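Attaching the record inline, Q. Sequence:
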Amino acid sequence: MFSRLLGRRERVQQGLKKSRESWYSRVVNIVQRSRLDEEAWEELEEMLISADVGVSAAAQLIENTRLKASARGARDVEDVMDILKGEILEALTLPGTGVPTEPSTGEGRPHVILTVGVNGVGKTTSIAKLAHYYGEQGCKTLLSASDTFRAGAIDQLRTWGDRLGVDVIAHGPGGDPAAIAYDALEAARARGADVVLVDTAGRLHTQLNLMEEMKKIARVLSRLDQEAPHETLLVLDATTGQNGLAQARSFTEAVGCTGVILAKLDGTARGGVVVAIVRELGVPVRYIGTGEGIDDLAPFDAREFVEELFSPVPE
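Structure, as predicted:
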C-alpha cells in the first residue's frame, strides 16, 4: 500500500511539473520584486487568469488574499503564498458535496460509472486508466462499449480490454447503446464484477439526439438497479482550458454529472483550470490524468494539488 501511495504522489508531482514551474516562480518573483504594491496584486491576478483560473475567480481570489494579507500584516513571500493557497483550497471545496465512495470488492452489487464527454478529450483512454486503477485496488471491472457512433470505438475498447485482461460487452457498430449497457450490467452481476465502466459517444450539447441517447442509457440501467448509474463522470481535456469549459458547462447542465476526470493535465502549465472547473461546473474533480501511461491516473486531492502547485521547483 505504501509503495502504491508513493507512486501516486510521484505521478501527481510529474503531472503538475509544468504548472508548478509556472506558478511557484511567478508568485515568488512578483511578491519579492514589487513588495505587494498595487502593481504586484494586479500581476498576481493576471498570473491566475493566464493559468486558466478564470477572470471572476482570479479577481475574487486576489481580493480575498489581499484583505487577509493586510489584516495579518503579511509581507513576505511565504505568508502571502500561504494565504493564497488557503483561498484556492477553499475555492476547490464544494459545500454540501463529498467525494463518492470508491468502488469496493465483494459487495455483490456492481458500481456503475457512466463516462461522458465531447469528442477528442481522451475519454476511452481515461476509461482504460480507470479500469487499471480499480484493478490495482482489487476490483474486478467490466467495460461496456456503448459508443456505437464513432468508427473504431468498439475495437479500441476491446483492445484495451485485451491488454488489461478485462471483459468487454459489445454489440455491432450502430447498435443500441442503452441495450449494451443493460447487457453489461447483467453480465457484471453474473460474473461477480465490482465495477462497470460505460463508454459513450463523444458529443456536443447541441447534438440533441446523442444527449437523449445518454439519458436513455441511464433510464435503462435503472431498471436493473434503481441507483444506477452510481456516478456520471465528465472527461475534460486540461489543455483546452476555458474553451473546453464553455462546452462542458452546457453539457453538464444537460446531462448531469457527479464529477470530472481531468485528462492531459501533464500537457499544460495552466493547472488553474481545476479551480475554474469546480467554480463553473459546480462538480468536484475526481481524477487527474498525469501522463500517457496506463497507470498515469490519480484520485484528485485538493490539498495535495495546491501544495504541489506552490512547491519550490527543484534546481
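The radius of gyration is 21 Å. DSSP finds twelve helices and eight strands in the chain.

More tomorrow.
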